[in-house]
């Protein structure tokens, strides 16, 4: 897929659904350590750029790089691999989903 097609879709969709309610500082932090897709000659390859998908210890390391010694106020997680990340935060919320139950 062309990178320009992805960028075009992101500009059209993301502001409408996500960024209206997003604090600029939250976006700065999120974008500074977000997972990126590798590209070659203007097309995506499907590979993930280093440091890879931010899961487990990698996610905690990204938080430390971004915040340094400052402890974030809130950490949200939804699986066991988020524990290294959320334990670095002052307040922790683990979201539980029951996929066996449909409402």
TrEMBL record:
Q: Which Pfam families match?
A: HAD_RAM2_N (PF23270)
What is this protein called in UniProt? Glycerol-3-phosphate acyltransferase RAM2/GPAT1-8 HAD-like domain-containing protein
Q: Name one GO cellular component term.
A: membrane
Question: What does the similarity note say?
Answer: Belongs to the GPAT/DAPAT family.
Q: Where in the cell is it found?
A: Membrane
Q: What domain of life is recorded for the organism?
A: Eukaryota
InterPro entries referenced in this protein's UniProt entry, alphabetically: HAD_RAM2/GPAT1-8
Gene Ontology MF, one: phosphatase activity
One biological process term from GO is: cutin biosynthetic process
UniProt keywords (A-Z) are:
Acyltransferase, Membrane, Transferase, Transmembrane, Transmembrane helix
Q: What is its main location?
A: membrane
Q: What residues does the Glycerol-3-phosphate acyltransferase RAM2/GPAT1-8 HAD-like domain cover?
A: 33-94
